[in-house]
Amino acid sequence: MIKVGIVGATGYAGAELVRLLSRHPKAELTVLTSQSYAGKTMWEVFPHLYGVVDNTLEALNVPELVSRCDVVFTALPHGHAMPVGQEVMRRGKRLIDLGADFRLKDVDIYQSWYKTEHTASVLVASAVYGLPELYRLEIKDSVIVANPGCYPTSAILGLAPLLTDKLIDPETLIIDSKSGVSGAGRGLSLKTHFSETTNNFQAYGVATHRHTPEIEQELSLLAGMPVTINFTPHLTPMIRGILSTMYAKLTRNITTEELTERYKEFYQGERFVRVLPVGMLPQTKAVAGSNCCDIAVSVDPRTKRVIVISAIDNLIKGAAGQAVQNLNVILGLPEDTGLDFAGMYP
Ligand SMILES: NC(=O)C1=CN([C@@H]2O[C@H](COP(=O)(O)OP(=O)(O)OC[C@H]3O[C@@H](n4cnc5c(N)ncnc54)[C@H](OP(=O)(O)O)[C@@H]3O)[C@@H](O)[C@H]2O)C=CC1
Ligand SMILES: CC(=O)N[C@@H](CCC(=O)OP(=O)(O)O)C(=O)O
């Protein structure tokens, strides 16, 4: 069994990771940390895990944590995974970070968008962006996996075939994303207050959201040229899910049917990316609880634009599920170990 530690086990992403790993056949939940609930059992804080997870939550002690685990997951606010990364590197263990600390290759860009000093910049070059559909081989041998952000996962998977094949003019790219409230984490805030989010729908982070440079980094690598985007996230009155709608001008004539075939070919063998048949559109309910990213492409011959729609569960393919998929890649296990293809419905 592989001994795993989860730092930030009491956050939404961390708790979902605990749930998924509790039924993983090769992972043993060894250390679960919490800042606010150390000393309590996991199930006292999360009753859905009663009878499933018996661990007592511990305060974070980085050297001790790393010494007791083979693989550490960090699910912390940004800026806090860096010391864990340093200790993991020192002791030759593995880290899968669900936050943003190792995603951006350019430390200056990280510091300017996250308004935080990067204290482990030497580790950034060796960290691998943890999107298995694009970086499977690199993830396998990496010490630090930078699990992607939730919005970036939906956008990058939705756009990868178009950029790889140079089928769109990247300068015309617009990404419009809608997220459930769990994307903002479990902590109390005015933004996620019941009466602010119920029966309400609002944009936020317009032209300033910190996922913009992450999406641009990955799309630029796919396109082989710098890509800048307009990215607008929205908060919707639902708990889970991200739906991204993306628009761009096509560089050549292609039909919806031809493009759908090309997407199917690009993602052939990728069981967690479901390219939907023409006429079917992604919806968040269809991926809730599963590690799937559903994608549909439509060509508007009138405007010569393509419209790509993708849907994920922000806590699964957008966070904990993708982290388990990365663990499976590292361990050489089938990537679906411990993960679901069909989620909850209704
Ligand atoms: N929510 C989502 O959909 C997604 C989240 N992520 C990323 O995952 C990470 C966690 O997000 P999320 O679960 O939503 O956040 P939450 O706010 O729900 O949880 C944060 C966790 O970090 C712990 N924590 C906070 N500050 C510290 C600290 N200084 N030292 C040690 N532990 C601390 C908290 O402990 P305690 O509860 O005990 O206070 C809690 O366990 C973030 O980087 C986030 O951006 C990535 C993709 C999607
Ligand atoms: C709805 C909502 O508030 N979503 C979060 C998503 C952040 C997240 O999870 O991403 P990182 O891992 O990059 O921090 C936000 O916009 O900040």
TrEMBL record:
* EC nos: 1.2.1.38
Top EC group: oxidoreductase
Annotated transmembrane regions = none
Pathway given in the UniProt record? Amino-acid biosynthesis; L-arginine biosynthesis; N(2)-acetyl-L-ornithine from L-glutamate: step 3/4
One of the GO biological process terms? L-arginine biosynthetic process
Please list the reactions this protein catalyses: N-acetyl-L-glutamate 5-semialdehyde + phosphate + NADP(+) = N-acetyl-L-glutamyl 5-phosphate + NADPH + H(+)
What exactly does this protein do? Catalyzes the NADPH-dependent reduction of N-acetyl-5-glutamyl phosphate to yield N-acetyl-L-glutamate 5-semialdehyde.
The name of this protein is N-acetyl-gamma-glutamyl-phosphate reductase
To which species is this protein native? Desulforamulus aquiferis
What gene name is given for the protein in this entry?
Answer: argC
